[in-house]
UniProtKB/TrEMBL annotation:
One of its GO terms (cellular component) is cytosol. ATP binds at residue 231. It comes from Levilactobacillus zymae. Homodimer. Catalyzes the attachment of tyrosine to tRNA(Tyr) in a two-step reaction: tyrosine is first activated by ATP to form Tyr-AMP and then transferred to the acceptor end of tRNA(Tyr). This is Tyrosine--tRNA ligase. The lineage of its organism: Bacteria, Bacillati, Bacillota, Bacilli, Lactobacillales. L-tyrosine binds at residues 34, 166, 170. Keywords: Aminoacyl-tRNA synthetase, ATP-binding, Cytoplasm, Ligase, Nucleotide-binding, Protein biosynthesis, RNA-binding. It catalyses: tRNA(Tyr) + L-tyrosine + ATP = L-tyrosyl-tRNA(Tyr) + AMP + diphosphate + H(+). A motif ('KMSKS' region) lies at residues 228-232. Its EC number is 6.1.1.1.
Amino acid sequence: MSIIDELKWRGAINQQTDEAGLADLVNEKAVGLYAGIDPTGDSMHIGHLIPFMILKRFQLAGHRPYIVIGGATGSIGDPSGKKAERKLQTMDQVRHNQDCLTAQMEHLFGQDGSFKIVNNYDWLSKLSLLDFLRDFGKLFNVNTMLNKEIVASRLEVGISYTEFTYQILQSIDFLHLYKHEDVQLQIGGADQWGNITSGIDLIHRQEGSDAKVYGLTIPLLLKADGTKFGKSEGGNVWLDPEKTSPYEFYQFWINTDDRDVVKFLKYFTFLSQDEIQHLADAVAAHPEKREAQTRLAEEVTEFVHGHQAVVEAQHITKALFSGDVADLTASEIEQGFKNMPSVTVTADKQGLVEWLVDTTKIEASRRQAREDITNGAIRINGEKVTDPAAEIDPTSAFDGKFVIVRRGKKRYFLARVQ
């Protein structure tokens, strides 16, 4: 099966500029192709991941992926998907974001030299205003640019000349990569179609109409409920483990709706058709086992964070489900309890009743605290405590950093020891 046929099976193709021509090209040679990302933030989120999953598939099929970090375009702002002008970042912030995104890409694509990261600041920053206007501006018709969806969607509220020129700059990227790196294919989201076709038009004008260059876009990924893929209740799901812990990342995929899980397996894993069909059958026959969700979470978490992150996420999940938290590490507690109720306490030993009521406010009154302790409803660091006269030592577990309290069957509280 060719890479194009595989992408069709995975539902990952929205539009192609020349379907037959591209199919022939990828069967003839190892093709240079690229996708870009602007350093508007210091981490990708899972929505950003979609085009780079496609790029990764091309890499695994023996093609030559290029990743363009938009050091230049990111400094002015892409109008795509925005109802108003982007706030310009300082160049120091742009450079910091470039470094962070580069590190993430190197992790995803490896260090074996089978892909290349480039920065469009390296060539766009060398253009003078006169060169830009004479060599490129002259080749773009304003009427055509206005009709591009990416610009037309902004006309009602207004668009600056700065953002209006974005499609010209992105077109120059494609031309530069075609001339200097033999890149013939650009990949992007559905909203990038206008920018991609502008680049192809520019190459044909400068290099001749017989230049073999192509564009491919990916459909907008929607969940079964009609909402846009990529966010959890807490906001974006980031690839940066400091922003979204590997445990939270794993849980996002575990909680995938049955109606979406097969689609996400096709988009976000490198499992074969047979493996995905087996999981689709499992969803239909035994949805309560959530076999497909578990495999999805394992595959994507390992791709983004590595195998050890999967092991830790599963360990945390099992511990929280069973209540057996005693053998969690401090790092695992930091991940698993990140969004649970927490309080800061001192390292001083104290009577448990007073600690639950006065120090942590976990219990509303001493009477209620004594009753819950006597009834076995309180667990400290996984151990049931039934003696109201018991004393608590906050530094006795988890490297002296945390105390985990479980009240009843499911209510967890975290005390952070100063």
